[in-house]
Amino acid sequence: METTQLLKGVLDVAVLATIRDDDGYGYDVVRRLRAAGIDEVGDASVYGTLRRLYASGALSTYVVPSDDGPHRKYYSITGEGRTQLDEQRATWRRFADTMTELLDPSPARRAGVRTIGEKK
Questions:
Q1: Mean pLDDT, the chain, as a whole number?
Q2: HSE of 79 in the Cβ direction (CA atoms, 13 Å)?
Q3: What ranges do the domains of the chain cover?
Q4: For 14, what's the count of Cα atoms within 13 Å in the CB-facing half-sphere?
Q5: What is the rounded distance in angstroms from the CA atom of residue 116 to the CA atom of residue 27?
Q6: Which of 65, 73, 81, 90 could be stapled to 58 by a disulfide with Cβ–Cβ 3.0 to 4.6 Å?
Q7: CA distance linking residue 42 with residue 105, whole number of Å
Q8: What is the pLDDT of residue 30?
Q9: Phi-psi region of 112 (alpha: psi -120 to 50; beta: other; left: phi over 0)
Q10: Whole-prediction pTM value?
């Protein structure tokens, strides 16, 4: 499976997590994602995600003047964005746990033993 296909489903949460603790401008967010190991992310995808998250109220913006070039639009996470990040983090953990169990089942599951509360 291509990483770029997986990335499409999680880019929103990755961007929110990237600016959770430190505001950033567009290309800064791209650099942070790449530094975190998401090398396949495209600039246009990140800029589109930033615009979409801003439009949904998850991000706010402010402009910082620059002496060396054009002004930069910084993005910061809002209360709504933090709520979205918390919800998406919980969803990701459930999904990742499920996939881990499917791909590398525990010895009990391999032996056909159901756990408490597990459906037939």
A1: 88
A2: 0
A3: 3-110
A4: 23
A5: 48
A6: 81
A7: 34
A8: 97
A9: left
A10: 0.80
